[in-house]
Amino acid sequence: MHPQRKQRLNLILFLVAAVAIAVGLAMYSLSQNINLFQTPTQIAAGEVAPGVTIRAGGLVVDGSVERDPEGLGVTFRVTDGQAQVPMVYEGILPDLFREGQGIVALGQLNHDGVFVASEVLAKHDENYMPPEVQDALEIAQQDGKASMVEAAGATNG
Amino acid sequence: MSINPLFWPELGQLALILSLVMAALQVVIPLVGVQRGQWWLMGYARPLAVGQALFLMLSLVMLTWGFLQDDFSVAYVAANSNSQLPTPFKISAVWGAHEGSLLLWVTMLGLWGVAVALLSRSLPLDMVARVLSIMGMISVGFILFTIETSNPFERLLPSPPQDGGDLNPLLQDFGLIVHPPTLYMGYVGLSVAFAFALAALMSGRLDAAWARWSRPWTTAAWIFLTIGIALGSWWAYYELGWGGWWFWDPVENASLMPWLVATALLHSLAVTEKRGLFKSWTVLLAIFAFSLSLLGTFLVRSGVLTSVHAFASDPERGVFILALLGICVGGSLLLYALKAPTVASVGRYELVSRETFLLLNNLVLMVMALAVLTGTLYPLVYDFMGLGKLSVGAAWFNAMFVPLTVALSVLMGIGAMVRWKSDKWSRMATILWIAGITAVVFALGVSLVLSGTVKGGVLLGLAISAWLIVATLADVWKKSRGQIGRIAGLGWSYLGMVLAHVGVGITIIGVTMVANYSIEKSVRIAPGQVETLGDYQFEFVQAGTIQGPNYTSQATRFNVLKDGRVIEVLTAEKRRYHARNSIMTEAAIDASLWRDIYVSMGEPLAGGAWGMRLQVKPFMRWVWLGAIFMSLGGLLAVLDKRYRKQRHSGAKVAAKAQGAAS
What we know:
By secondary structure, chain A is an alpha+beta fold. Chain A is built from 4 helices and 7 strands, in the order αβαββββββαα.
């Protein structure tokens, strides 16, 4: 083989190997960095192990929001119409956080079954429903035990 | 004589339809001319491009006029404006939602076409014909898309609403007046590089001349993209109330991908122009860059990326977009597959040569783009396969970008000084050693002075940026032989590169400092109380209300103290916009070159207290300052003498060719 060509072939082989390693590492670390979304029903059914970072969300149950009189702590419950999950959060809540609003939180379940949120997201549009929450509500609805409207009504009590 | 205000939407729509006709003619006539070798037919390309743009502009003006007149009989105006909306925002509301932004997009496409028509005297007429014909194809596709699925002139008759639904308060801001048009100019500008690449493929003239024509256009689009992305980041920083400036949000990622590929394209074009190498690769990059900007604009606008359900809610739009993307990407790749194998790159280069370094630079940039693409589309694919819903955390993107940026910076420092064809390490050794040692000393020094400890991330970030800046400037010094007077003579293009590379270094310094030394605190604070954060004290002076034109805000005033003296008074607001009854946080920021002080309001708590977010962010401005440097560098490169000269001498050649043919 022409030495020039050989050199170029080596370069190409090196680049291919480098890219392959990079892709391998990237995919591995991707699998470590994904946060699965879990519905309140799944959490209530014990499908989520404590200490694993997940995303959870639903509608904020009416009358469930309680603020810590001293600091910035807040507790509330979210529902998909079937099950409710208690959440605690310490910090500034987004502008659109309110009862009845669909939210998504990032955090971990503790051993008491309380979801400790490190981040609470609510989009800047009052008509916006996080797609995950929308789905969770629909799944719960399909299970036939509660419709979305009933869920909202039931949470008033 | 004035136009009857009742019919402006119809006029706008008519203009839009006429622009479609113009665009269709612009596709067919010049191409037929090329096919038959008839110059007079090719000559229609320029006037048609101008005509198309004029009608598009008329259409956009009509829509703007509708907003200024508060004509709520038009559905788009009714949904995105309000009689109380301040006038500047009525204008920016034109591109505040899907339909109008699409109209802006096609209008800009038309304007780029005009720019090509007017500034292409150096180009042989058959190339102009091909380029404008391809740009016409893109226009046809997207004007058709606008008319068919996203018509901004649709009426709400016979009973129009009394008042409009108002512009989303998030968009009622200066940043959002300028950010989308700039970003769109960048996205759409890449269509010129795309059209040039396809035209070169079609004609089989994939040569240095093609690269030289293509370069300033690509750089111009890249400048707009750079500024657009920086503006978006700046806007998110002060408007979202979080103090974050980059979230790895799908919308941001969609703009970053074409930028990364366009950056690779710029460098690959340099090799093609100077050395006649990497031709097929350059063409492929031009295709990718534009395809990604299409993906960016429309998948974001149609909501496909943020939510799969928006897709289902308007299947017509989604299918249309997919079809357009398919035609565009599929068609250009097919052409590439047919024509590229006949393109031979001649010329040799050694391992230590600028060619090698630019190739590696391209590789790193493409891996970066691929990483962003993977992280953005992975949740979509995962969901589509029914595996569940997930999101990719920012940590992953950061983990990808830190090592890649390090590699890129090391390459950049060497790549700018290494010679074409072949070079020796020994020739560059002195500068590289100086840059390397300065970098390490600087990084160690700064991190020790600032925090007393050494943090790996800080060290790495400061070292590579110092390396990059020192190596780049040392090369200037060497090339000018240490004489300031000679610097200007090094060429605008070279100085542009220097400026842009220094800009990258500045941005890396900013990112490193703000990521590692930012401090923040969420507090519960009542009037009269003081909170300490770092070297600063925040004294809550008072709370009150402010009446805006279309909102009422609750405001809190803070004295920021350092060493017992008040250095700044900051007033943060929480606005309630009347029309939509929605709430927006307006952060109060004291910006300076060395640090930003950022105060934003959370929620009211019992006893007059407020939840407040207080932040001190060192070197925040540097992140965007670097982007300004990069764009200025790009501007210098576009204005380089050889492009102007070539226009002049090229005109003669073209005239001769034309004379010979007729």
